[in-house]
Every structure is written in structure tokens, then in C-alpha cells.
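Researcher: We're teaching a course module on how sequence relates to structure. For the next exercise, students receive a sequence and then see the predicted structure as C-alpha cells, so they can try to spot secondary structure elements on their own. Here is the exercise chain.
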Amino acid sequence: MDEEEGSPLRLPGGKFYMTPAGEAALRAEYEARKAERHRVVEIVAWAAGNGDRSENADYKEGKRRLREIDRRLHYLGQRLQQAEVVDPAAQLRRDRVFFGATVTYLTERDEEVTVTIVGVDEASLAAGKISIGAPTALALLGARVGDEVTVRTPTGPVSIEVTAIRYPAMPAG
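Model: And here is the predicted structure for the students to work with:
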């Protein structure tokens, strides 16, 4: 069980699905945290040189912040190490829903919804990106345009109909 994200869907071998953009975002955060850690270490060293550490707020706060940064660096490092980066643009079977697909579907109330299936760390409902482990994504995987699939929700099963499947443009070459 991950300490921060619950238990996301893994591939065999402990890998996590992630898009190239998701991997780049995690790497950027990792590098930013490393730089921040370096600055905080300098502050802690300065504060430690000011004498009595038991009443030194700068020292105590710096040590607390270092623990937070180290915990996040460990999490990000593990996530990047276990990542299975899948470029949706390279998907050859574009007639079915797979990781990275942008899918438009109709709900039982005839509402049109468009979502992109991404990795756990990339999911953002506000941006229309759902985790591959989300019930809707799991129901959509493998579906084709015209298929009606059942999503298991806490309030019971819900049917949705796939109306469009899109992938990013294939890389040239």
C-alpha cells in the first residue's frame, strides 16, 4: 500500500502506467525537491551553528521540512523507478480503448462526457483526465465505438455508450 496514493493499478512486475508527459512532470518535481532540499540543508546547518537546538525554531522547522522533502523524494524516486511509460501516440490499435485514449461516451441521461485515461499520478477530473484504475476507465478498457459498457459505481451499475476514441497523432518516421 502506497503511503500517499492508496494502491494504484500496477502492471506485472510492479510497474505503473504513465504517459511521457506524466513522467516529465514527476521528474521535474523530483529535481525541484532535490534543489529545495539543498537549500533547506544550508538553513539547518546555519541554524545548528546558532547554539541551543532545543529552543531553535529555525533548526526545528528545517529538520521537519527536511523529513517532508525526503519522504516525497523517496516516493517520487520509487514511482519513477517503477514507471512503465506508455506513449499513447504510438498506439497501433486505435479502434479500441487502451491507456492514453481520449474517449467520448454518452451517459444514461444522454450527457456527453470526454475523458482521457492516464496514470494515477496524472489524474485530474477538472482536466478530464481519469486514472487507469478508476471504475469508468476499467469499464472502458478494450471497448470500441458503439459498445455499451457497465461501470460499477457505489450506487450501482451504470451503462455508458462509447461514441468516439482518439489518440494523439502518431510520431513521424
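Model: If you want an answer key for the exercise: The chain has two domains: 16-85, 88-166. Confidence is low (pLDDT under 50) at residues 1-8.
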